[in-house]
Amino acid sequence: MKRMTAALAAALCLFAAAAGLYWHDVRKLEECRAELIYRNVDERNSCMEAMELVLGEQTIPVFGSSELFAAEDVAAFPQYLFRNGQSDFNMILIGRGYMQSIHHAVNAGALEPYIKDKKAVLILSPQWFTKAHLAPETYASRFSEEAYAAFMKNPAISGPLKKRVAERMEALLTADPAQLERMQKVRRAVLEHTLNLAERVEMGLYSRFMDLKAVHTLANALEPAGAAKAPDKAGAANSPGVEAQDAVKAGELDFLALLPEAEAAGKRACTNNEYYIFDAYYDTYVRDALEKRKGGQAKDSYMDSPEYGDLRLFLEVCRETGIQPLIVSIPVNGKWYDWTGFPKEDREGYYQKIRDICEEYQVPLADFSGKEYEPYFLKDVMHLGWKGWVYVDEAVYRFYQSGAEE
Fold first, then answer.
1. pTM of the model
2. Which stretches in the chain have pLDDT values below 50?
3. How big is the chain by its Cα radius of gyration, in Å?
């Protein structure tokens, strides 16, 4: 009896300590909300408590990949344009390199309960739509167990759609057998109800541990309350010691007036090549391989790819959860793709397939495919640049505003 009492007392003490630490960490997240708004890192994106905080009023989630990381001279990058969260509107950037439609189908389903205006944006990269698609190792490196668990728990998503996403996820997660086994248990728990009592207890404890860990890991990485700083000027890095700027009102931004400044910044950055690629990227990745790359993509294609099915899964998750998505179609760098020989008719075919899918699902499309040759729309061979971000920011803000006054 004494041993049982001691064990119970120890368990209660452990529970109390864990609960105390959790509430301390949650308070820290609340105090640091401003810092979290543009902190596009896995630790934030996998922490449902943090995402509930940042997806408040006057925000819109923007899903994408490696273009969601800033360069200091791109003044229209959302973090800079909206003064690091000191704005009456903010784009909550979610994603990094090698995250594609299937990742964001899960993210959309996980975050839907916190998306106040039920609108979201997905920025497509043409380079996602290859026949080889995502390697299992790449997919596993970007997989979030926390987001997947939240997706599977969302009652707004039907069982058949959860099953389709689960099957797709399990086919891609083979590079991490231990993680795959855990996620198969999640599917069995939610869709099949075949876990025994011991497995249910194990899964419940593990899920709670992961939630606590996500909150604690993120809280530990944050600066004390009030430490988040705004850029000292448009396009400046968010570095310690920078003075805070006045808040900006998104409705007062003149996007057309931003374009000459963006073009000037692009001209300053691209001086050593005719492809509108910024100098450092060209020197590092292109110059020495230029002749070898000539005609090297003549047999490449974006017309046949599993990514189209994954994009449909994203749109179906949006449809079932009531999210209205804006799809943003980014062009390739026309001059560079001409040099590498990537067939123009294939590029046009890809753009048309995106149009057709958006029409099929009756969702709005910000179609920038006509800007393949516009200088400084991109900053290298694939990432949004100085002018590109101006156009995208405006499209996202207009989409966010649409219907607000109806």
1. 0.89
2. 4, 6-17, 225-243, 405-406
3. 23
